[in-house]
Amino acid sequence: MADESKDLEREKKIDSVMAAVQNTTNVIKIRSEQQKAYNNFKKESQNLTDVSDERFVELMESAQMDDDLHKYLMNGAVLTCTQVTTDPFSIPHTGQFYVDEIPDMNTHLYTTLNVAENPIEINGRAYATVNDTIKGFNIHPFTGNCRVPASGAEAERIMLWQEFGIVDGKQLSQAGVKGGVCQCLMNLNEQWDNMFFKDGDGCIDRIDTDPNGYPVAAKGITRTSVLFCKHGGLIVPVTSGQDPVTRKRTIGGYEFQYDWMKEIPGKDRYVTEDALRKVVEISTELQINPDDLMAVMAFESWLDPHLRIGSGACGLIQFTNIAIEQINIDNNTKYTKDSIEQMDMMEQLDVVYLYLKPHIGKMKDLEDLYVAVLASKKVGEEIVYSKDKEFKEYNNNSGLDINKDGSITKAEATQKVIQRRDDYFCYED
Known about the structure:
35% helix, alpha+beta
């Protein structure tokens, strides 16, 4: 009996170790950067059937990775997925679903990690933990398609999204919504999986928040961590979110607190020093903060003056037909979506100025400025949209209602702008 018990315990250990081996092997397959680092481990472990816990740790220690891969993830870390693609997604007997044709299609292959709700730990940035896995909050679905086919139930979800703009029981947008099927298929594990470090101790604790908003300890995650999607993909970090950025720039007498010329993975860069100088000039006339204006434009368009989204809005602040019509009436101009979309950033900033000019003196802070772009008639009001009073507008923007109380406040509406702004944060002078 003693021998049987021992054998059972031994088998459990082997199962545990081999599960970790398999997990690590998955990382090898999906990360060429990590493949080199894990090369020795791969050679020694791929055919193992019996290995002690101690030997497993030794193997991990022998396959140490570059220091960069040990960096803990912070708010704004860029993520990708092993199965995300810009290729069409097919459903038998139904047809194919295409992602938006935009100037940089690689945009569909990346998303950013949002952990801004975690307590700030260093240089104004919040660390991520294994618990940061909430779809649509910590991790927004990719706007691309998925290489893994859909089941019958998943196909029905896709059709519901395509016809009515509904995902997970929520109205995300209008029917015929653009973007890819990932938003219908993403189904994340409850926690990230961590790799061992050379000391065998794994990741250190970072500070997270519990459901009630109180700080709690949880294991941090690094660039070696992976998050399993139950549909079939592996979410992996591309950047840590704490990589050094260029120093703060003083342009036109203003010191920018964010690096708006920073290279963002998957995004083309359109911002120049001349453009930033013009932002300072028009911000002075508009009586607003230049960083705030850049943050709003970054959220709306990733600072891409040529971007046109599924709704048809275009440009730096996503001009709508109604907005363009009002600009033309107020300024005796003849702008169109096509003419605005063809402008470079310098030219289009003039149109941004004309749009915001009627609100001079009313845009006291970032919140007011963003409301001027989102819902110009609500500038200065605390409630932007109410489900009871503006049902259509509320439903179109329901993702901004953080506490799901049926009202979108200007503070709630601006949270995603702040998160996008943090992607450009200068934490190193």
